[in-house]
Amino acid sequence: MTAEVQTQKAQVLGVKGLVKRYGDHTVVDGVSFHIEAGETYGLLGPNGAGKTTIISMVAGLIPADSGSIELVGSAMTPASTRVKGHIGLVPQELAIYPDLTAKENLLFFGRLQGLSGQELKGRTAEVLELIGLADRAGEQTKKFSGGMKRRLNIGIGLLHRPTLLILDEPTVGVDPQSRNSILESVEGLATEGMAVLYTTHYMEEAERLCDRIAIIDEGKIQAEGTRNQLVELTGGVDRIDLHGSGNTSAAATALRQLPGVQHVDGGASGLALTVHNGPGLLAPIVAEAGRAGMALTSVEIVRPDLESVFLHLTGKALRD
Amino acid sequence: MVANDLRQRIRDKSVFIFSLLVPLALMGVLNLSFGGFDTGNVDLKPAVVIASSEDSGQLGAALLEAVDELPVMDVTVRKVPAGHVSRETKDTGADLGIILPADFTTRVTSGQALSVQLVEGDAAGVETNVLISVVDGLLEQFSAGTVTAEAGDIAGLPHQVLGGLAQQAAAGTPALTLSEGQASAEQLSLKGTLVAGQTGLFLLFTVGFGVLGLLAEREEGTLFRLQSTPVAPGTIIAAKALVGFVLGVVATTILLAAGSVLFGVSFGSPAVVALLVLAVAAAATSLTFIVARLVRSAEQANIAQSIIAMVLGIAGGAFFPIEASGFLAALMDLNPIAAFIRGLGIASGGGDVADIAVPLAVMLGFAALATLASRLLPDRGARA
User: What is the domain partition of chain B in residue ranges?
Assistant: First the structure.
């Protein structure tokens, strides 16, 4: 007899049946999810999908019309003053004071979070180092670049070592170098045991950072799971694009007969094949196309991604 | 939170510009424009009076002597025959001509009607008006002698006695005099009114740096972060109100002190003035609660605050005294700026805390009512 040991991490956040309406418009419609300690959970959806409204309710900024939010075992509402201490919020808009220095910003918000004395000073110095602003700590933030402001914006959220860090589209409007720096910082947080709720409309960020992802559209969670679980929803098919000239119609006819090829579409300049296990079928496909008289110039395997999943689930593309 | 806000206000320097420099500059300009009309600041030029000298009695001589010895201006009286007074006055550019009847003293002492003719010079100015007022006042006094004589005649007194009584009434000092007490004056000098009015007006702008700063924080995104921290509900709005109040008290104190030094105005007991400053700052801060309820953006807030400041400031007498009667007067008495200026007037006249009870009550009552009203008004989303 074998005993199956299942390790379960502590649940940090539990959201059940969350609803928010503005007039007749339901912005968030029955959203439920949970996040465990050390987990990075992504809310992926286009602008206007309801992501920011969800995190505003989770952070206790606005009340929910119905449903419940439980943070480390306590109900979270706008009046839950004590529970808010578990949250670190990094709003989409820069939430820093331009007339204060980076250090003064951190000290101010640290005090509001209940830090004081040596703990506050020490933690401020740590965070300044972490976000790469230690040598600019004494400068007013209005003199900072956009990327530096973004990093400080995140640093303030991290300062008091929150149980749950909420990041709302933290890379919007950021240059590629700063963006990469931010993503690396977030990747390091989960390893320290911090739970992270990350909203984005960038598919590649969700794929890179998140342990689990909820695809959200029009206020509803359309699907939830790991990246692979979500991709499975599309049926696990790949697309192979063949580019070239010659007898493409004869090649299309021949390729349709190959086992594993579901669909062939195309014209004189190339063909697009929908197949199961693209890498495994690539060699016979290339050979068959050549035999049918098609002169290939390039071949590309397009594996399904979260964009494909979103398209599959909603019938529309993720858009900036 | 309060210290953080004050540090930012000091660094962005706008509070210095709008709360101190602009009102001080405005006080200076207004004092230059209107300050010259203040009491004691009009310099009267020497004046020349051409007068007839036919009256042989004592009262005609007494009248001209009184004019000649006016303490407020240097007057020279030249006596000429009655027929020459008009021409001499015009030819010599004199300020005033006085033609007394030859029987001036006799008519006054016997209670008969009399007429004195005044001739204004071609260059008549403030000095001529002052001289006319003086002669008019002296004639009023002499007319008392005429009335006394008539009354004595009706009573059947001998003529010798009547003349003595009339002369005594005309030349004697009044039995009743009106003296002006300090605490009852309740009026600031023109310069004092300008300093107090401008201070009150700009206080309404200054307190806006507090509560209305909430709207700016919302637009800048920091409000959401503040609201996500574990601070008790109401702390944020209370901190902002305290910032506005502190800025208001400091700016008002500086403006009154600077105004006193620069324009030579005294507002009386510092303790009494301090109470008035605290009360008017509380009233002004309470107004910002209402504005914060009604507007949706910092821009709207600035417009609303400016309108309120100008209406209350002007109606309160920030630029010039406003007179009204009936219901409008009662309404204007409830204006905290008017109460502040009135309170400073009482203080400047030597009034103590008891004397300023009514203005204090008006300002504190206004603060309480405005705060209560702000709780009842629908919140359009601006509040923390």
Answer: 2-38+189-383, 47-171
d(CA A210, CA A36): 12
Domain-embedded: residue A311: no
Domain B47-171: which topology? abc type-2 transporter like fold (3.40.1710)
CA distance A175 to B21: 42
Does one domain contain both A124 and A254? no
Determine how many CB atoms are found less than 10 A away from the CB of residue B368: 13
Distance CA B278, CA B265 (A): 20
Q: Is A100 on the interface with B (CB under 8 A)?
A: yes
Distance from B10 to chain A by nearest Cα, in Å? 10
Q: Can you tell me which residue has the tokens 């839950």?
A: A80
Cβ-nearest to A61 among B4, B11, B227: B227
Asked if A97 reaches chain B (Cβ–Cβ under 8 Å), the answer is yes
pLDDT of residue B262: 84
Residue of B12, B231, B233 lying closest to A99 (CB–CB): B12
Most confident of B53-62, B319-328, B364-373: B364-373
A246 lies in the same domain as A214: no
| Integer-rounded Cα radius of gyration of chain A | 24
Shared domain for A268 and A140, answered yes or no, is no
Question: With contact defined as beta carbons under 8 Å apart, do B106 and B98 qualify?
Answer: no
Does A124 map to a domain? Answer: yes
Q: Give the pLDDT of residue A162.
A: 93
- Residues A17, A157, single domain; the answer is yes
- Based on the fold, state whether residues A183 and A221 are members of the same structural domain: yes
CA B140 to chain centre: 30
For residue B78, how many other CB atoms are within 10 A of its CB? 15
Q: Which residues of B touch A92 (CB under 8 A)?
A: 221
Is the CB of A81 less than 8 angstroms away from the CB of B230? yes
Q: Per-residue confidence at B147, pLDDT binned at 50, 70, 90?
A: low
How many beta carbons lie within 10 A of that of residue B238, not counting itself? 15
Q: Where residue A255 sits, what CATH number does that domain have?
A: 3.30.70.920
Same domain, A16 and A158: yes
Does the beta carbon of A112 lie under 8 angstroms from any beta carbon of chain B? Answer: yes
Say what the pLDDT of residue A96 is. 93
In a domain, A320, yes or no: no
H helix count then E strand count, chain A: 10, 14
- A243 and A214 belong to one structural domain: no
Structural domain including A226 reads 2-232
Spatial CB neighbours of A196, under 8 Å, sequence gap ≥ 6: A35, A39, A40, A41, A164, A165, A166, A167, A186, A189, A190, A209
CATH number for A115: 3.40.50.300
Helix (H) or strand (E) holding A12: strand A11-22
pTM above 0.90, yes or no: no
Pick the last residue of a domain from A191, A212, A232. A232
Q: What is the dihedral of CA B363, B240, A57, A126, to 10 degrees?
A: -170
- Cβ contact (<8 Å) for B229 and A109? yes
Whether A313 is covered by a domain: the verdict is: no
Domain count, chain A: 2
- % of chain B beyond a pLDDT of 90: 14
Please report the pLDDT score of residue A101 as a whole number: 94
Phi-psi region of B67 (alpha: psi -120 to 50; beta: other; left: phi over 0): alpha
Residues from chain B that touch A60, judged by Cβ atoms under 8 A, are: 227-228
